[in-house]
Request: fold
Amino acid sequence: MSAEHGRRMGRRGVLRTAAILAAGAPFATLRAEETPIRIGFPVPITGPYASEAADQVRAAEIAVAEFNQSGGLGGRRAELLVRDDKLDPGEAATRAIELIEKDRVDFIVGSLSASVQLAVNTVTKQRGVLYNSISQSDQIVSSPDWGPTTFHEAMTPHMTAGAVGRYAFEKLGKRVAYVAADYAYGHEMVAGFRAVGATMGAEELAEIKMPIGTRDFSTLMPRLQALRPDIVFLCNFGRDQQIFVKQAHDSGLKRTAHIVAPILLQTARIAGGAQAFAGVLGGTSYYWGIESEVASARAFNDRFRKAHDGRLPSDYGALGYSGVRAVLTAAAKAGSTETAKVAAVLAGMKYDFYKGPQFYRACDHQSVQSVFIIESKANGSVPEDVFNVLATVPGREDMLKTCAQEGLG
Amino acid sequence: MAGLSLDLLALQIFTGLALGAVYVLLATGMSLIFGMLTVVNFAHGAFFALGAYAGFLVLALGGNFWLALLAVPIVTGLLGMAVEWGLVRHLYGRGIDDPLLLTFGLSYVLVELIRIFAGTQGLPFDTPDALAGAVDIGIGYFPLYRLFVIAMTVTILFLLWLFLERTRIGLIIRAGARDPEIMRVLGVDTGRVWRLVFGLGTAIAGLAGLLAAPLQGVSPEMGNAILADAFVVTVVGGMGSLAGAIIAGLLVGVIVSLTALFAPEAGDVAIFALMAVVLLIRPQGFFGRAGLMS
Reply:
């Protein structure tokens, strides 16, 4: 690592360093002039969340291109270093360490699983590197995981399940069964629904936890049908979500129960097909269709269409965009890539990049934002035309746990 | 557990049998290859995935599911024969480890090739219209397509049995497995027989992949997880035993299904626990011959 650094600088660079050091200027200034702003972007390129990860990369590249076209940070351009974390916390931690120690990244944005982002966060927190997570988690904005360099652009399960739960318990019924991926995401979503359910008189019939990456859910269908719930809350993600909905459709479960996913994924819906998903409800952080009402959404969609052959961004893809753009915007405002200065700008920063107004709450760096309630529709005009927006729950701080509840008060 | 009725239990067991059907197919192909060639084919899961992708290609080129049912085993069978000819046959007689390592590496190459040509994301695969939806089977609703998978499995096993027991080539294969030297002395080209057996195994693997595609969609890694399951089935049933593959496949399906009813979190562990118990009590599996692996 040091050899590589030395080679890149060359003899003149070393001499200049010596000169500047002699003049008393900090070493960091030299680095700032010579190297691009590097953003590490670990996401699960392979595995059950590959579709979502691929879209996150596409969208993040747009944020980087925009930043560079607008002149960068005093001429310093940004660069995205995409790494495959294989949806594995150990792999992600290794990639994060490499990105920091070997590639000398200024920031890390990314990861797409509650447990993986916690692993990345552990690494960045220890090394004092700013990390903006673009995947759902309550834990990351709570003690002891949260740290001063931790930011969370994605929604939390608490706010997502809260918004979706209030809608579902009111309109669809009170007898519920949970199917959850057996890791942090699933557990936190179920906890979020339970918290709302308790205030609305919900009756819990069962909670079924399944390993992540499950290929066959047919074995759950007899029991789910026998329980006769009004709602099956489907708290899993990616290919798991797609396979469950397909197999639930085949088994006839939808005849007797509503399927509601706290995060209903555009990518899963496209891969799973209209027929299997018909009538499935859920929440989302973003649906491109809001562009008729939200100007920033239209602008973002247009740039995405232009850059990617007319395709439209997905929910989690868009998080890649806003996560990267937020960090770069803060760096531009701070006039520096120093962690402390950028973090100081980001904490409390108000912005509207693609879905209407958002802001990072100062005490836990959680992005306060709107939640959309959507329904899968039968047939659309383009492949991405898959949802109807049933309701918009505007972002308010009272949707979040208080920082005292998170142990940060 | 509350609400446990006889109907629910019956439907759960039936679901397990349907799940077992795919295991049976995959394990049959593995067992066939091992029983005849003493090759543990770790690329079997990759052929499973290739079958699903070949089916997707048939549909994308304008064909239908029924045509894919014919075309896919031919494609994966021929590919298997090519692999046997180009790679595996050079390792015959070199113990069990060498072909195992070769096919293990090959599985990585094949999956990576799928990723390169078809993307890492996976592709949708609709249930054929004629087989969509659920039917009432007396104890509850059951997906029609899964009934079809059971029927297909029974048909394939019956055809395989006919082929091995009632045809001249089948006779040669069985004789060759027992005493290849005598067969060579009698003028039989055993190399061709082995190639055919390997191709037959991969053809069945490809067909299993195609049958699984409408259940879970198509993805490069789809064979990885099921290979582990199929390997458990093969070990429990006895390496090289077709009857063992069938009985163990159905048993594993039922165990997975009942685990999902009573302790879903343990789904991944249950079948490996079964394997551990079987290995402790009867190391050669239900129907395996002792000492084959040594």
In short: Residues 13-281 of chain B form a domain with the ABC transporter involved in vitamin B12 uptake, BtuC fold (CATH 1.10.3470). Chain B touches chain A through 46 residues (CB under 8 Å). Chain B has a mean pLDDT of 90. DSSP finds eleven helices and two strands in chain B.
